[in-house]
Structure formats: C-alpha cells, structure tokens
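Margin note from the TA: students keep mixing up input and output lines. Inputs are the sequences; the output is the structure of the whole complex. Example:
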Amino acid sequence: MSMKFIKVFLQIVVLYIFYIVGVWLSDRLHLPLPGSIIGLLLLWLTLMFKVCPVNWIESGANFILSYLPLFFIPATVGVMNYFHVFAGKGIFLILIVVLSTLITMAIAGYTSQYLAQREETKRKELKSWKERL
Amino acid sequence: MERTLIAILIIVLTVVIYLVMNRLYFRFHYPILMPAITAAVAIVLILIGFNIPYQTYMIGGDWINLLLGPAVVSLAYPLYKQRVTLWENLVPIMGGLFIGTVVGMTSGILFAKYLGFSKEIIYTLLPKSVTTPVAMQIASDLGGIPSLAAIFVMIAGFTGVIFGPSLLKVFRIHHFIGQGVGFGTASHAIGTAKAFEYGEKAVSMSSVAMTVCAVIGSLLAPLFVWIFLI
C-alpha cells in the first residue's frame, strides 16, 4: 500500500517536472503554446521515442486522470465572483455556446466520416485492382 | 499556522465533497450529476452560506490547483496508448477535428462579437470545446476568466450529450470515426463518456480527438484572436 503510494507520488513528481520544463520553454522561447501543453508534447515525444519508459509515469498519470475533475474544482468555484456575467443579455452566452457546439460537432463528425469513407473506397479499389492483376 | 490549518481544512473539505459526489454520480449516472459540477455547486453554496470569500477558499484551493499542470501533461499517456488508432486513421481524425475546431472557434467569436460582448468574454468563450484544464489555461493566457471558461466548457459538454445523438442522426453520421471525432471535438471528455453508447471504437476516436484538440486549440486560439479581434 505505502510502496504504491510512494510510486504514484514519485511519478507525479516526474509529470510535474515535464510541466515545469514546458513552462520554462514556453517562457524562454516565447512559444504561443501554454507550458502545460508543451509539457504534454514533450512527454508524448519522449514516450514515442522510448526516451522515457512508460512505467515511469503510468501509475502517476492513471492516478491523476482518474481524479481529474477534482483538480479543476477550485478554479471552477471562482465562478461565484462572476454570476453577474449571466445577468441580462449575458444569458445569450449560453445560447452561443450551445449553437456553436452543435455546429462544431456536425462539421467535425461529417468531415471525419467523409474522409474515412473516401479512404475506405480507395482501399477497396486498390484491392480490386490488385485482384485483377 | 492559522493559514496552514485553513488550507488543510479546505483541501479535506474539497476532496471529501468530490468523493461523495463521485459516489452519487456512479450510483445514478445522470450527466447532470457529474462530480465536477455538483461538487463545485456544493462548495459555492457553502461559501456563500457562510459568507466566505473566494480568496479565503483559495488558500487551500491553490494547493489543489497545483496539480492542474501535471494533469494536462498526463493526457500524453492516453494519447501514447492510442498511437496505433491515431496513426491508422490519421487523415480522417486530423481533418475532422481541425475543421471542427476552426469552425467552432470562428462561430463562437462571430456570434459573441455580433451580440456585442466584451473581448474578455470572447477570450473566455473561445476554448469552450477544449477539455477543462487546458481551456482554463487558454482563457487565462488570452486575458479571459478561467473559472467562467470552465462553465462554458461544461455547457459545451452537455450540449453534446443532450443534442448530439439527434444531431448525428439528422446529418447521417453513422461511421464510428465521424461519431467519435464529433463528440471529442465538440464536447471533450463529457462527450467522450457519451460516445460509450456508440461502441468502443467511437470512444477511442473521441478520446484521441479530445486530446489532439487540446493541443490544436491552444495553438489556434491566439491566432483567431489575432485575426478577428485586433
């Protein structure tokens, strides 16, 4: 139990280091990406190129991701200082979000499906050509 | 000493409320009972009820906030695990989520601008389809309000859950790649949970789309601000 706890803790420290390096790079190189996203990309690249073994971060990442909503509760609670935003015409903001989300979903889904089906037809054609030859 | 005590008390309170709400959610499984919402509502009610300012709450809250950065970094892990799914469907996934994100951000900006909302609000609205921790980061980097961004993100999530299924039917999106990418691009993690009803393949598409959208979204957001608002 306690060994597992230490392992998770140390792995979160590793993830935190990736985050710190990301923030540092973002500041230093004036990158348009937030430090946390740079950290994500760095971790992803080091995993892909097997620089960072998966079992160095696996338990920590699983732990954080399974409690993910907990970590943004404090920031969300801050909305208590902004209730006035939704007063009056502010209520339209909800409508904007709903409408824009529906458009996003339709377009993203439709485009993906179109591209996927196009690839599938191409693959089939290729296959039938090969069979004829 | 007193500050430390307050911090510990607040951290314990937040964790306990979260765990209780989590139990409640797993018991009933209504999307509206998502612990991120119910726990935040409960804490807001407690703070207002006892007349505690947000700044006092954040004495402890800041410690929990500290894990937001590594939480975003952790998203690399599921993306790594799904590298084969991503690679085999690279064009449909990337094409759909890229166009979806562009259209989503553009429509959000234009609607809000048309209705005369302030820049601060538009910056906050912009990352609505991106997963919460990243959306808050994007909003705060642009000069928006992170906590309000979290609310918009939740509304975007529920929109997908409530209207998504009929939308997919109307637009005849029946391929699992289209369904998954649609849910993940528009409604992030909440949508990904809904994608479970469309099968495992749709879920993995949705979760890949959600993670890549977080990266693409944080890259595109400043660009759109530059194009439309300056």
